[in-house]
Design a protein that fits this description.
185 residues; alpha/beta; Tetrahydropterin Synthase, Chain A
Length: 185
């Protein structure tokens, strides 16, 4: 980042439930929830106008409502009050068989839905949204505050952190600019 580069920073609160079944923590194997905050820092993207000063009229790269609207709607409608489960979690099969109407509220992850993984998946989703909006902005970082004392901040390419899957990357929900939070399994 150069000294004169502008950053846009947006924060959104959401509630979620999850469980971690890999055996790292017996306490976390029981479904539980957190009230989390996700903060994104956006910088000018590859198609942003190359100007050194504000234009004297609108004085913004992109209106705030446009820059954050799609992202906030996704967090509010798809992530808030969702249940995050690993694609290997037997609870996912239970929901498919017994309560399929609730599948839209389940976020399915490649492995345990840790805060570290969710930061990478959400950053990839944000990148897909911004690319679809013309790459005027791009994410510099994404931070999830899980508790008042635990925060994960991700910089760089989220693909370096996301576990490999059998599906091509373009088919994974986190790389698509739609409102999905799970893939067809």
């Amino acid at each position: 980042m150069t000294a004169s580069q502008t950053e846009l920073v947006f924060t959104r609160r959401f509630c979620m439930g999850h469980r971690l079944i890999s055996g790292c923590s017996e306490r976390c194997a029981i479904p539980h929830g957190h009230n989390e905050y996700v903060t994104v820092t956006l910088i000018p993207g590859p198609t942003a106008p190359k100007q050194k000063r504000l234009d004297g009229h609108s004085n913004m790269l992109l209106p705030f409502a446009e820059a954050k609207g799609r992202w906030h709607r996704f967090i509010d409608e798809r992530i808030d009050h969702s249940f995050q489960l690993s694609e290997a979690d037997p609870l996912l099969t239970w929901f498919e068989q017994n309560e399929p109407q609730r599948l839209e509220r389940i976020v399915v992850t490649p492995g345990d839905p840790t805060t570290e993984l969710m930061a990478a998946l959400l950053m990839a989703k944000l990148r897909a949204f911004l690319k679809e909006q013309g790459d005027i902005l791009m994410p510099r970082s994404l931070e999830i505050k899980e508790t008042p004392t635990n925060t994960v901040r991700l910089h760089g390419d989220p693909a370096h952190y996301i576990p490999l899957t059998q599906r091509p990357a373009a088919q994974c929900w986190w790389n698509r600019a739609d409102d999905s939070t799970r893939d067809a399994v």
